[in-house]
Automatic annotation (TrEMBL):
Gene name in the database record: sufD
Annotated organism of origin: Luteibaculum oceani
Family: Belongs to the iron-sulfur cluster assembly SufBD family.
Protein name (database record): Fe-S cluster assembly protein SufD
Domain named SUF system FeS cluster assembly SufBD core: residues: 155-383
Domain SUF system FeS cluster assembly SufBD N-terminal: 17-150
SUPFAM superfamilies tied to this protein: Stabilizer of iron transporter SufD
Amino acid sequence: MLTAESKVKNSFLSNLEPNNSVLANPLSKEAVELLHTADFPTRKSEFWKYSRTAKIQNGNFSFQENNNFNFNNAFSNNTIDIVNGKIQGNNTQGIIVKKLEDCSSEELSKIGTIANFHRDVFSLMHQAFFQDVLVITVPESTVIEEAVQINIASTGNNSVSFPRIFICAEELSKSKFIINTESEGDNQLLYVQSEIHVEANAKLHLELNNSANSDFLITDTAANVESGAVFHINTLCFDGNWQRNNLDINLIGEFAHAELNGIVMPNGAQHFDNHTMVSHCVPNCTSSENYKNVVDGKGTAIFNGKIMVHQDAQKTNAFQSSSNILLSDNATVNAKPELEIYADDVKCSHGSTTGKLNSEALFYLQSRGVPAREAKKLLLKAFAAEVLESISVDAVKELAETAIDKKLA
């Protein structure tokens, strides 16, 4: 009798035909071989401690051929569309966009070098079954004024898709990107992997807008940040049933900087899990993390953030904060900030706070004639204001503000 674990793995493996192009890819072929013996997370798996994956293990997922989708969120006219893991449309200016098959040997040698594709059974699945790679280059010294919006959609019932993105921001370039996920259908697994290389003195700002209503959404974002470069990412979690977002940021050149922010608002029975790892690999780098969780109903928010300071990374300055507000007695927050330091000349801080809305401030606003619901909205927007202000695209900021209003309607 097959276990649930072997059922879901076999359902994926059975989608591979002997002549499938996936097996011709050395990276995918190796992942398929490893997948046969890989185990799913258990309650003892630290990396998945607060997120159960049994429903994914029991899923009967299949790949979809439908390539049509009408995206709802329009943040930019500079767009690329990916539907069910396949690149469908490119309407961009100022950047170089390629599919995997069009890449040079030099470009191919960079893909797959930043993310850890052997971390767990899920990353192995993605490595084994991705169907295409969106490869983007921001040319040296180029300034992209209008954000590039990468639209990703999954369609159909019981569907699975594994979109994959590689972005290289060349030296001295400045760019903004939006990864916008949407979905249509029931019981879906959408798993997005992104590798980002920010070269010396470049700046890249990424808005990760998780609007997909899919049952299961996983995002992996891994970035290498070189000397004097800046990488800034905002993660917005409002929709869907179950989300897991993994960020792995490596500061590999002196005076590199990374900023990670998040607004996370689960309600009902939503489950949103954010894991971050910022590795300070060399001296004189800085990083800042600021996550705001607002949890209502029977929702669950998880933040597990780790700062790793390597032995030679002197003069590191790293800050991490997780602030949480519970709006109901049944809401749950699991916060685990971590520091691992192997250098002695550093400034590092981390902390987490959890509580309810300030009753005195709420009373004050109501005593001035502000209705209770509006008073609550004002306080929560003030709570999230620091992250909202860091959003680089006005249309994305407006969507976040509207989403907060809807959550509290």
